[in-house]
# Entry
Amino acid sequence: MSHGYVDPFDPKLARALRPPSQMPWVLTLLAIAGGGGGAAWMWGEMGKSKAAAAEASTRADAAEAKRAALAPQVEKLTADNAELTAAKEALARDVEAKTGELAQLKGTADKLQEHNAEMIEAQVRDEIAKGDVRLTESGGKLRVDLVDKLLFESGEATISKRGEGVLARVGGVLAQIDDKTIQVSGHTDNLPLGDKLTAQFPTNWELSAARAVTVVRFLVDKANVPPQRLVASGYGEWNPIASNKSPSGRARNRRIEILLTPALAPKLIGRAKLEAQVSNNAVASNEPKKTAKTAKTATPARTDDTVASHARRHKTKK
# Structure
């Protein structure tokens, strides 16, 4: 091989004569571009983070300002709650004390009610023994039933002499009871009135009402019972306490009923007076035992409708 000859197929020569590659420059440019883009992204993210931090700080400042503004209200509500709790506890103690006091007063009132019944019973003991007067006590109410023959003649609304004596004794007790409403009601059987009576009393309602009013007037005028505590009503035949199918049942239904109930606006009576009245009842223990006992039974159901819509004229009583 001659030194002046160059082999065109020599690989070394081909590599030496090959133009330099552009890839490094491309890679460099890509790296620079990527770095710039990353820096821009990072810069943007930093900006967002700063804005978010600023917004969070602003919200925190606003929340703190609101908390500071609400702090006095919270403090006041806390104080009010403590005050209400203390008031509730004090009220509970007061209710407990009043409940005990009420129970004590109720016991005293029950004793007075029993004493009232005993006083009335003492005044009409003989009539009770004969069955002409009945006493019943239930639910704070005291009822005195007087058969009509004890007070009135048949078909009459004028009190008999015997009836005046009985009412005077009962009225003397009623005048002393100042915490009750006294309802006087007239009742009849279901037999119609005779022709001689219908001119004055068209039906049993008129007769029962007239008798009740007569008794009320007697209690006011003769026994000095305060009129504002009295009520007169006529039930006619519509509130029986026995069957009208028998003479004995009709006799029981023909009655005057005196009902003592707690007044709607009761007169205030001091505890000392109540206890004094109860202590005075001890005198009754020295009296002989009564021959008749007060019947404590449930008061029959009744209505306050003293005039029913089905009023009718009755046939002539035989």
